[in-house]
Amino acid sequence: MNLQRALAQNDTGDLGGLAGLAVDLMERLGAPGAGLAVAAENLFPPIPSEVILPLAGFTASRGEISLVAAVAWTTIGSVIGALLLCLAGRAVGRRRTYALVAILPLVSTTDLERSEEWFARHGTKAVFLGRMVPLVRSLVSVPAGVEAMPLGRFLLLTAAGSALWNSAFVLAGYALGENWGVVEPYADVLQKAVIAAVAGAVAVFVVRRIRSLRARRVGS
Predict the structure, then answer these.
(1) Are 176 and 54 in contact (CB under 8 A)?
(2) Which residues, other chains included, contact 94 with Cβ-Cβ below 8 Å and sequence gap of 6+?
(3) Do residues 145 and 176 make contact, with C-beta atoms less than 8 angstroms apart?
(4) I need a labelling partner for 47 at 20 to 30 A (CA). Which of 19, 21, 185, 203 fits?
């Protein structure tokens, strides 16, 4: 496979670090290499799947792997990565989670109970739709494991959501060909927006909790 050469010819040969590792995996293993890189991305979110997926599509457009294989293997990689996180959540379990929350500042077991109630009502949608949201697609597997969501349901929802997300980016890379790199800036904006939203929500929670604790102290 001459992927590195093609990237160099199109001024994208400077991919380094984790993205460079993904390129190396695809060169050595083909479509399964893309799947392995995506599985690692689920476990280590800093790995840029928004680079790996369109790059896999670009590779398919060159005929070095098939388009179907690119989508299939990246989806398999997503499911494997998510499954490992889900199993980690199951290993921790509800009892250990409650014990951990009990010693953390600013949060209480009541917060966890509310989270469990929310997940009981919306867990199916959260797992499916979460697979299409940067950062969330890795994190959502853990509460699914802690709450012992049936593995069959978890795998089905994860595979369906991952297939949609991966297909969109792989097909974009396939259609754009040598210009596959234009996908990354848009995906980067989306990821930063999600991170900002999560950080904002955490900040609001912390501020409200601190005010609530202060009010209780004053009232007592």
Answers:
(1) yes
(2) 116, 146, 147, 148
(3) no
(4) 203
Which among 52, 45, 56 is positioned nearest to 21, based on CA atoms?
52
Band of pLDDT at residue 13, cut at 50, 70 and 90: very low
Report the domain count for the chain: 1
Task: Give percent of the chain above pLDDT 90.
Answer: 19
Q: Is 115 exposed, middle or buried (0-12, 13-18, 19+ CB in 10 A)?
A: middle
- Using CA atoms, how far residue 155 sits from 123, 152, 178, in Å, is 13, 5, 34
Kindly report the average pLDDT of the chain as a whole number.
79
DSSP structure string for 47-70: S-HHHHHHHHHHHHHTTSS-HHHH
Closest by CA to 193, choosing from 141, 105, 134, is 134
Element (H, E) at 154: helix 151-176
| Domain extent for 169 | 3-219
Q: What percentage of the chain's residues is helix, strand, coil (to nearest 5)?
A: 85, 0, 15
